[in-house]
Structures are given as C-alpha cells and as structure tokens.
Design a protein that fits this description.
205 residues; alpha+beta; FAS1 domain; 7-stranded mixed beta sheet; 7 strands
C-alpha cells in the first residue's frame, strides 16, 4: 500500500535529516531567508555546496551550453527543483580524499576542478551531468512536503529530457536509484533544493 509506506518513510526522513553531514546541516542561509534568494544564491551561501557551484561556473565559462546555467537558475520567474550533491559526493566521484574540499572557496574549487576531472571528461561532460540534476518543479513546489510529492509522482523529468525514477531506498528517498535525498525541501525564490548524497550520472560515466 502506498499510503502506509509514505507514512513510514516520513519517520525515516525525520531521523535521517538529523544525521546529515554537518557542513550541510549547519549551512548558512537556511530558514525563511532562503525564500528571498534564488537557487544559485542559496547554494553559493551553503557551506558544503562549493563544488556544485564551481561546476556550474566551469560549464558556463566554457560555453558548452547555448545558455548560462547560472543565469537560468537565477531566474526569479522560473520554478525549479534542483538535486544538489554536496562536496562529499564530488570527492567520491573524483576519487578525492574525504574532506579534501573542506574549507575551499568556490573560486578555489573552480580553479582546481578541471585538473581533477578524469581523462576524457571536460566541461561538456560536466554540463551533461549537471542537467541531470535540474528539473521543473511545476505546480505545488511551495508545498511543505515537496519531497513526498516527488515520491508520490514516482519520477521527474530533468533538463536533458530524461525521466528519472523517484522511489523509496534503503536510506530515504532515492533519485534514479543512485542518489538519496539527505536534506529536503530547502525553499528558494525560484524553486526548491533537495540535497543528495551522490552525483546523478544516469550512465554518463
């Protein structure tokens, strides 16, 4: 039965939200003030999201997309849902030592990122990966339980046109069976951020 599973999941999510990595749990900008800021502004103020913001800037600087991803996510007239991997997720993906990115600024991560990418992976491949993390929030994104709304829908269409499943995983709500939401429903002026514990690749690498 769907309803009992969702009620049970609510208890799990409450527990996991208390166990989030400190860098995200204590991030500057959480609370009512995030609703006045765009997604890019919230991420830029969030300790633990430097690698994600740096990756967006690397992609924009290389002009591998026909639009600016940072500008798109700063558009106050749009409503997005962004699955935001923390620094730890990028460290795992790039084979970096845990905590390697701690204390680095967005500018420092941006400068180091190209050299840290695996052979054959450049800004175009990074852009393709980032597009897997951006979807249209649609109606109801201001709901206090948007994560559960995603779960009830069972999937989300992301910016590259892919449809990613959203399901109950062992540790909470899983996106594409490869990433779990670890901090949910952080509201911004133009959408909602779901912090996840892994980078969504969907077979790209």
């Amino acid at each position: 039965m769907i309803v009992p599973r969702i009620r049970f999941l609510s208890v799990i999510l409450l527990a996991t939200s208390l166990l989030v990595a400190p860098s995200l749990a204590s991030a500057e900008g959480y609370g009512w003030s995030t609703r006045r800021s765009t997604i890019v502004e919230v991420l830029s103020r969030t300790d633990g999201a430097q690698a994600l913001v740096a990756a967006v800037l690397v992609v924009d600087e290389a002009r591998v997309l026909d639009f600016s991803l940072a500008e798109l996510l700063s558009d106050p007239e749009r409503n997005f849902v962004v699955f935001a991997p923390g620094n730890a997720a990028f460290e795992d993906l790039l084979g970096l030592e845990a905590g390697f990115l701690d204390g680095l600024s967005i500018a420092e991560v941006k400068a180091a990122l190209p050299a840290a990418l695996p052979t054959g992976v450049g800004p175009a491949e990074v852009a393709a990966i980032l597009l897997k993390h951006v979807g249209s929030a649609g109606r109801g994104w201001r709901s206090t339980a948007y994560e559960l709304a995603l779960l009830r829908k069972g999937s989300i269409t992301v910016a590259d046109g892919s449809v990613l499943p959203v399901s109950i995983g062992a540790a909470g709500v899983a996106v594409n069976y490869e990433s779990t939401i670890i901090r949910k429903d952080v509201r911004a002026r133009n959408g909602v951020i779901q912090f996840v514990d892994g980078v969504i690749l969907d077979g790209l690498l």
